[in-house]
Batch of 2 targets.
Target 1
Amino acid sequence: MKLAYNPDNKDSIIAFAKLLIGKSVQTEFKKDIPKLNLSDKDKGQLGKVIEELYFKYKPNSNSAADFKKAGLELKSSGLKQLKNKEYRAKERLVLNIINFVTAINQKFDDDFLVGKNAHILLVFYLYKKSTNQLASIIKLVGDWKYPSEDLEIIRRDWELIKKKIVDGKAHELSEGDTFYLGACTKGSKGGNLRFQPNSKIQAKQRAYSLKQGYVNHIIASIANEPLAVYGKLIPSLAVAKKKTIEDIVISKFKRFYGLTAEQISNAFAIEYTPGTKSFYAHLTKSILGIELDKEIEEFEKAEIIVKTVRLKENNLPKEDVSFPTFKYEEIVKEEWDESDFKEILEHKFLFVFFQFENEELVLRKVKFWNMPYSDIQEAEKVWAKTKHVVKKGKIVKEVKAGIRYTNFPNKTFNSVSHVRPHATNALDTYPLPKKDRLTNKKEYTKHCFWLNSTYVRDEIYLK
DNA sequence: GCATGATCATGC
DNA sequence: GCATGATCATGC
């Protein structure tokens, strides 16, 4: 059979793939799709149709690239579109499954850089909740090779994941451990436990993945969107080889330890306006040498969450650390492993600590941090109790002097996290899945998960 | 002085 | 209009 492309030639494959832009496979292959017996639940169904009906080859699950001779791996993934029409990744890009047993003897150059990951051909479709994946319109097609600076970061990420497996801690892996390359869970919820070589504890099956923020950069590159809105911390391969993101950030901040926020802002000729929302973000960018109107490229790719914390003189943060509000109707449907809260907690954070000293705020230190496995398990208890309370319709415990006291997990319930209101006022609400038993209301003031200030002090600032 | 509920202010 | 960082108010 004569193919419409040359499977041994990269350019030919890529050019042929680009002919898919603007089409849906549903329309193109209506007649043949039923023969593949795909399940609607199969998240990889679009990829299978493109492989078998468009490129006309059988999908492989071995370690060789899909187009073996050309060294090209085909992947399809979803896009969402912002109000300003720009595209963003719907989710992380999942690469190959990590074999815990063989991983401990592998080398980065032989594992990651050959086979499936070195050169990827990406087919992005526009995701819509109401649309079947096969009917989605393909919007962007292009190939991706890692810039050499990124590969240095990915190499360190890969080494860290390997070290955890070597140390018998595959069950403690978290996406927050690493910067661009994550070890994400893969497979049906809860199940899919695997043996690991250096521990008796079974670990969730995991795959290497590129963080959603990293995929956004791949998308921008393929879509030819201007990258001028980003400023870089790592200007060259030489710097990337010598220093980690952490090294660079900490060394830049260190020069200002002990200075007040006002002194630092004066050093950069930025206005000292601690009341405005952007002040601390601007201070951080100035210290890092990033122009104020630009985003920090490495932070965006690694999805680093920056939190500025102001400590009282006794080292206790003045406020607990908040996260986005959760929706009652959604939390009751979530499983922990797919929950928004766990997703946030598996990020990498940069904490910037200031401390009050005679009414002035002094920069104490910065710290990269991600939540240890045992604390994520603690946070799960807070999440589970919250879900339970909403599900039972037992949010309000009692009403005293017009104030509603809740059954949500408080600071004494758990040392890591608690649940508290986060709203404009009591009338700023989300709908409830079930009427609250005591108040008979079908909506409730917006709440969110918070990190306890004592936890931030003891486990992040003082450690 | 802390815990908990309630609210404000800014910026997009 | 809403998300987010910040702050206030009350009671123990």
Target 2
Amino acid sequence: MDARRTTVRDMRRANRAVLLTRIWLDGPLSRHELGQSTALSLASVSNLVGEVIDEGLVEEAGSVESDGGRPRVLLRVTPSYGYLVGADVGETRIQVELFDLTMTALAKAEYPIAAAEPDPGAVVAHLLHGLTAVTEQAGVDPAAVLGLGVAISGTVERTADAVVHAQTLGWEGVPLGAMLRAGTDIPVHVDNGAKTLGQAEMWFGAGRGTRHAVVALVGSGVGAAVITDGVSYRGAHSSAGEWGHTTIAYGGRQCRCGNLGCLEAYVGAEGILDRYRQANRGRPAAGGDEESALGELLRSSTKTAEAVLDETVGYLGAGVATLINLFNPERVVLGGWAGLALGDRFLPRIREATARHALRQPYAQASIELCQLGPDAVAMGAATLPMARLLRDGGVPRSAAARPAASTRPARRPRAR
Amino acid sequence: MDARRTTVRDMRRANRAVLLTRIWLDGPLSRHELGQSTALSLASVSNLVGEVIDEGLVEEAGSVESDGGRPRVLLRVTPSYGYLVGADVGETRIQVELFDLTMTALAKAEYPIAAAEPDPGAVVAHLLHGLTAVTEQAGVDPAAVLGLGVAISGTVERTADAVVHAQTLGWEGVPLGAMLRAGTDIPVHVDNGAKTLGQAEMWFGAGRGTRHAVVALVGSGVGAAVITDGVSYRGAHSSAGEWGHTTIAYGGRQCRCGNLGCLEAYVGAEGILDRYRQANRGRPAAGGDEESALGELLRSSTKTAEAVLDETVGYLGAGVATLINLFNPERVVLGGWAGLALGDRFLPRIREATARHALRQPYAQASIELCQLGPDAVAMGAATLPMARLLRDGGVPRSAAARPAASTRPARRPRAR
DNA sequence: AAACCTTAGTTCATGGCATTAATCGTGCTG
DNA sequence: CAGCACGATTAATGCCATGAACTAAGGTTT
């Protein structure tokens, strides 16, 4: 029930978007197949495809024989039409990567973060530096970069300024988008890291082929990215999906958020290790950082360890069941470093625990899988932000389209042979 | 990222839908105001409005002076253009109501249900009987009924057959939509009762003016209707929003669904009374049905009652916090007969309990209110289903539009004076 | 009361769009 | 080499929203 008018231009943009999205997501396709799957007439497909080919956004990529007729010409998005930069602002380091339009990584830069609560200005400086660094490294014209996507933990307001609230970084209302835009002309997109990782899994990972999924991320923190009908569910102010602090055990363990009985206090890495420590009468788990400590715990086969892990699986199942009951997804994708570690060993038991806690029907409609991309995909997920924008707009960055259209129309492209 | 083409006709339909929705929801409006709020050109507004006036769907309704110029003519949806029938299939009775397009109830029929697990055929017979009964009662031509909406507890597949799975009725895969269509030519819509009630609250009740809300319903059962960006959130198979069986107290009380620690086992009417019974050493709460027993409990001021109710408020707050964390709504609307009873007395304390369990930021972005329409609004909610359809299609039931367009175009309507 | 101003709403010419039908292109088969 | 089958393009058509010009309806000024 959108209160937005539709004009004749929206129509063309929408159809270009549909075609581009199909071509990009489902690999090389012929005009015929495009017509079939989008219900557009062949004439329109030809017309629209001709346009995007003229613009250089799409190119012909060989042909495939058709039973005794003219062979079909396959189309694909030109990988070098433009480039995407994705950045992951983590708690310990900033990672910046450059991709071509096939999402192949071409260059990478990394900056450690020293302070526990880094200065926003310093982060912005790193990001801008990384932006020029990766373009130089890959030998790419900065003007060919279609956009910079930045993923960050915490919530990001969907406004032009992209105001960030990130407890873990100690940021409260940092207009990261505005700050970046002051330093570069490249279009900037900022979003929550879990959401971008979720988007990456949907397009290239365990979520492929589904339109309704929940990507459940378990690490030190616990969060979820909800995808509905192919797009990220955001809620009123983009903070939807805060799964870690739902109450799973009323009056239970203290969580670092100050509340009692949060899911995170039971299945977050810290929560697991802490419970093990208690069960083990104060003796700590093997030293090192959280990640290796959890790995150690998963490898040990003492009764205590078994009991703690068993309990963890139960809580995790209950948490996943909550997601299934409330969101009714086709698929739950379990990820995050702790989630993957648990899932590698216990996935069948996690499924059982979920079955015990979820309603029968929604459970039967959902499959539970593990993430396929690994935690480094956050930067790639960030790069999907400008890509999503490109696809949604049908490939025409408004301003850029206004100029060339005013000049004389280029002659029809020479036929590829 | 919809994979659907757009044609020139979709454009007009979409714009008609936008205009109709505005006119219907926001009362009498002038063409000028319509143009402003929809961004359509005045020419198009005039054109489209002229069309719907010719069809009789919209009518002029007086005029209002404008500072020293030609007065504005107000437009409204013609209340008698068509009629809507809404039916509520409850556990103890079937209620059928007829409304005009202003949602004014004109007639009503009710049928008690004797069996605990009523026969689908009998329910269908009652519904069809009710359909003719209310039209006769109101003296309305059955052909003027735009649609029949049926609300039922349980999940309803969004297929043409509208297959219903309702545990409480003992129905497993009943194609209610198909069965009804076999008995009437009127378009039939079937949906879950909580979702229709939620829609009613969004349009006419406590949800007015918001686009993201969760309607939390607490009665014997516990459920929720999630509204995102103005439309009901359904998930992959329309069973999203099963709030009652999320785990709130891991390993806690046995729920009737067989699981342990469900929210419903604590804040559902039965759960509350049962906990009181246990706290009160086996002495039952005041007799009568659940509803009066709960009323009695709410009025009593014993220490035991206070303790149980206090606990209930805590659990309810945790449950609402889960909704706020996961869906990030602008508003949570608390309803259902038990929810209203609790809310009437404890709303401030429910808010506090929610604040304790939710994340600070999402909590601050959400207001918590009580339902305004009462439980009888389920039938009206059901009637919103055909209305929503009418608005979404811009008022043209496809088939009906095909014929008249083929005949000669009617002359321009005489100008109203 | 006549001329003029202001605001609301309508008509008309225009350009953009997808569609259908016809046409052209390309390779295979008899 | 003619005919066929399938892919892709072009041409003609009808629908659509838009801006500009115009009409309608009331008040205000002289």
